[in-house]
Amino acid sequence: MSKDLLSPENLELFCDAFEAINQHPGKSYRQIAEEHLHRSSASTISRLVLALHEHYEEIFIDVVGGKPPTGVTDVGREFYKAARQYLNHHYRIKHWKHESPQITIAVTNFIQTYLLPTCIGQFLRLSRAQGNTPQMEFPEDNVPRLTELVRDGLVDFAMGPYQVEQEAFEEQVEFLPLHEPIPCALVCRKDHPLAEKIDNQLIFDLEFLSEHTVITLPKIVQPTVAESLPKAKGMGRRIEVNTFGIVLAHIEEGEAVGAIPGGFSTIAQMSRGSGVACGRIHQSAMPGLSAALYLPKHREISESAKLLRNVIVEMVPRIVEEKSGIKLGTHTPD
């Protein structure tokens, strides 16, 4: 273990591992490394956690008798929160420059790839018509971190999936859904064993997935999707990845069934060139998804940020309809 135990790199690794273990108690460090972190070995994670326990003489992650982590502790949650806040400020200072960007909007990878480009083009046209050429940054992060960045005033606002379970932040952050939810879909290759069961079906029950590998993006795009998938111990396997492109790759290789926003399955077919089977999931089995703005409640944002916000509110419902092929109603802000 590096002598600089509390370096930003080590704290970042601990926080990522802590999040994964908190969401998946009982998984081994090897599973955490392979399925969720993709950049560190199990031994590196294990040594880091042990070193932090010894340094602080506290237990942040429970490990009983050398078995896989059983979960996180209350003290661990406190340390995780403090570490994340430190990292947020550290990176802001590290990348600070005299002519800092006028606008910083935190986003998920899915939104950065599929929803923002058209909005940014329109925003720049309007800004230049007003004689402005704003500088912009769009850091990508997972959903809990987006909310923290807005709460802590480190970004102007954020854009991610709408979630009703964010009560912990409701005093500091407003969550504004931009359109009615998109029904979710299951997608697989035409030669996948589940293709006939899925294709062109309205699916009311997901238990048949318990013996198959399912790939999704719960931390980045759709936390509600992950909670809807079967979790029977020893049955099936759920892979969580960071980008929509990786989901499409797994579907294309026939390695998994994808749980994705409905309609966006056409992207898999067009971008990969192979046939896909697609079935719509009824909302009783899996909640639909909608993009949302995460706005500060007690802090004014700049005029440029307000203009971008207004462009997003106006354009995103239409972009979603165009890219998903699904006709949706729009959410009109008060």
Give the structure's gist in a few sentences.
It contains twelve helices and 13 strands. The chain has 334 residues and is an alpha/beta fold. It folds into three domains: 87 residues, Winged helix-like DNA-binding domain superfamily/Winged helix DNA-binding domain (Arc Repressor Mutant, subunit A), CATH 1.10.10; 113 residues, 3-Layer(aba) Sandwich (D-Maltodextrin-Binding Protein, domain 2); 98 residues, D-Maltodextrin-Binding Protein, domain 2 (3-Layer(aba) Sandwich).
Fold and architecture overview:
It is a single chain. This protein has 334 residues and is of the alpha/beta class. The chain folds into three domains: 8-94, Arc Repressor Mutant, subunit A (Orthogonal Bundle), CATH 1.10.10.10; 103-180 and 290-324, Periplasmic binding protein-like II (D-Maltodextrin-Binding Protein, domain 2, 3-Layer(aba) Sandwich), CATH 3.40.190; 184-281, 3-Layer(aba) Sandwich (D-Maltodextrin-Binding Protein, domain 2). The chain has twelve helices and 13 strands. The protein has helices spanning 8-23, 29-37, 42-56, 74-94, 109-114, 116-129, 143-151, 195-198, 223-228, 244-252, 265-272, 303-324, and strands at residues 61-62, 71-72, 103-107, 136-137, 157-161, 173-177, 184-189, 202-203, 213-216, 237-240, 257-261, 276-281, 291-296. The strands form three sheets. It has a six-stranded mixed sheet. Helix 9 links the parallel strand 9 (213-216) and strand 10 (237-240). Helix 1 (8-23) crosses helix 2, helix 1 packs across helix 4 (74-94) and helix 6 (116-129) runs antiparallel to helix 12. The N and C termini lie far apart (53 Å). Residues 219-228, 230-235, 267-273 and 330-334 have low confidence and may be disordered.
